[in-house]
Prior knowledge:
Elements: H1 6-14, H2 17-21, E1 33-37, E2 46-48, E3 62-67, E4 70-80, E5 95-96, H3 105-117, H4 122-129, H5 132-135, E6 145-150, H6 162-174, H7 179-186, H8 191-199, E7 203-208, E8 216-217, H9 226-237, E9 243-249, H10 255-268, E10 272-276, H11 284-293, E11 294-295, E12 298-301, H12 307-319, E13 324-327, E14 339-345, H13 362-373, E15 376-381, H14 386-393, E16 398-402, E17 413-418, E18 424-425, E19 428-429, H15 430-441, E20 445-449, E21 458-461, E22 469-470, E23 475-476, E24 478-481, E25 484-487, E26 494-495, E27 509-512, H16 516-526, E28 532-535, H17 543-555, E29 560-563, E30 576-581, H18 595-607, E31 618-623, H19 629-637, H20 639-653, E32 660-668, H21 672-688, E33 693-706, E34 709-718, H22 721-737, E35 745-750
Parallel strand pairs: 9-15, 9-16, 10-13, 10-14, 12-13, 14-15, 17-31, 20-29, 20-30, 28-29, 30-31
Antiparallel strand pairs: 1-2, 1-4, 3-4, 3-5, 6-7, 8-11, 18-19, 21-27, 22-23, 24-25, 25-26, 32-34, 32-35, 33-34
Helix pairs in contact: 7-11, 9-10, 18-20, 19-20
Bound molecules: adenosine-5'-diphosphate and zinc ion (2 copies).
Amino acid sequence: MARGGGWLYYCRQLFPSTALTHPPLASHPPPLYLQVAIPSPLHRSFDYLPLPGVVTPKPGSRVRVPFGSKSVVGIVVGLSTHTEVPADKLRPAEQVLDSVPLLGESLLALYRWASQHYLFPLGLALQTSLPKPLREGEPPTLATALVWERTEAQAIGRPPGVSAQQLLDCLQRYQRLSSGECSALLGKPARPLLTALQRRGLVREIAAEPALREARQLEAALALNPEQAAALAALRLGPSGFRCSLLEGVTGSGKTEIYLQLIADVLSAGRQVLVLVPEITLTPQTIARFARRFQARIIAFHSGLTDKQRLQGWLEAANGSAHIVIGTRSAVFTPLARPGLIVVDEEHDDSYKQQDGFRYSGRDVAVYRARQLDIPILLGSATPSLESLHNALQARYQLLTLKRRAGPASLPDIGVLDMKLQPAEAGISAGLQQRIAATLAGNGQVLVFLNRRGFAPLLRCGHCGWIAECQRCERSFTLHQQPAQLRCHHCDGQRALPRSCPQCHGHDLEAVGLGTERSAEYLQACFPDYPVLRIDRDSTRSARKFSEAMDIVQSGVPCILVGTQMLAKGHHFPRVTLVAVLDADGGLFSADFRAQENFGQLLMQVAGRAGRAECPGSVVVQSFHPEHPALRYLVTEGYGPFARQLLSERRSGGLPPFSHFLLLRAEAARRDLPLQFLLQAAELLQREAPRGVSCHGPLPSPFGKKAGVFRAQLLLQATRRAPLQQVGARLLAALEQDSVARKVRWFIDVDPLDFS
Length: 756
Ligand code: ADP
Ligand code: ZN
Ligand code: ZN
């Protein structure tokens, strides 16, 4: 025998090592080690001894454990009779925080799957989506909430105003409402009205625990048109368990009405509904639409919540007192006591993909979760992602289409203006200017779309050609006028405006190109009698200004809205009858393989803002390349055929969804380190990459320096997921040991959207 050792060695092979050192005694079962997920960048759980004399916590429970020199909150993810940790290194847990597991089996399994799929440590994944008080070890107790109710008093003297009366009626109907629920029902902040009514003795505020109530439908459902009715019937006819359906319905075709009617079924069966929406569409109007339809506990997870409110919503979803949970991507991890349906609205939206840390796709996790829970899931969009469309065309998803707008509105017609044939100023062609004038004169509103904020994307010396550039990003600064400064849109760096050229000292500095500030300024000069409202990330930083602008738009007066993609989503502008896209060409000539898909989605979403109500709308697209086949096809055939055409191009190019990507990215302050690190990774792959995985790079990233940090990337591609996952896991294990790895920041992005 090579290693000697005779009999003992032989026994070791037959029995597990613990059996030799500690012969099992009937009265002494082997201890159960706690496998604890801890917020640490290492891709594994950590083993601890259970607390002596305390019932061993079940998986899903939180424990406080020593970690290095600190004490941290972790989650028990498993129990094992075996550990690799030497006995003298094993430490006991300090405290068991949950006697009943905080995370149920299925939620824990969901996190575990997501952690493996996205190659992200389970402990950190848990950390990113649990409400903060729970992460910090606070008990999961439901707070008694302050709620409002009607008093017995009747209004004497001055009758309450319209909103106040509406509020009183709501309180009469629902009996008790939190001020948040009141706001949801009114579609605006209710607190001032409530305090005014309280002063008059008409309402009072009391403390109460959220009660388990049955949900009821309040407002009657709309009578569906034939297309809608067919789609709803198909959704209702399905098997009771998992099924994924894609509702491909043009903007304004009444998708939301279908969601609402399907949700009514689920609520009346006593089940809960999870609704995911993109970041930008979770507006008070959206929540109000649900609140008007149902008398139900609706939890909205948005960025304006305090930690306490978030915790409360999480707990109400977990104990089943919430009926509808509506939120952005991280809401996909909300615990649900009686899940019945998941809806993902605007499923194509990029904001479903988290772009840092735990880089998961809320939509994809939602589909997995529905399968795991064996419940139906409905994905809806006017412009479905090619991934979902592919699944639908392969009959993995049920495909339902709505081609017409619901109600009286008709779809706008889209025309392309050839910029080569037109004089233009500030990006507005003469032809477009005439159309705007005619629309305003006819009492219509105009929406002008330009996906670039600031005044101009470039400041250049007309004499020597110098360009103002951000040193930290090696990209040009954007010129802003309000306030006047240079701003880097990549690192948020700012500079004062130079008075003269730093290179030739000439005074010939010129603003080149176009931003929303410039177009808005020009339009205001052309149309001094009409309000010109700019809507972009700069102008909406003040919530007051934004709501003032929205008030003007809602009042229906003729005006011009100038904005970025913030305008393309979520908002309803019933009086907008002309939509103009100033620069369509950016989306047509990009190296990113998703650029045309995104362009098509954006263009159709913007176009969809026109003519939402009775007034028919039209769309004008300005382009220097009106003959571009993609643009032509999109405009003449619409998004559906356009997307199917793109799919066949993706198929011949072997690109997603016909293959899968995994991006390994590295960043460091020294230029050579990211590439050096990635070269090692590539060598490793060369040695042991499974068949079917190809490796592109390493290369400096297209956006090679950002905020002073150098970036490089290695792209792995495979037609099947399994080998790619395997390689990813192997890479992780190897790179965790790597010495160069410690000098760079690196991460893996599975199904990346951002290749820049
Ligand atoms: P989508 O979600 O597809 O954009 P919505 O559900 O918001 O569409 O519907 C667009 C508009 O049409 C809304 O004002 C809605 O109230 C109205 N609508 C929807 N379905 C019907 C219907 N069956 N009859 C009349 N109006 C409808
Ligand atoms: Zn110069
Ligand atoms: Zn910068």
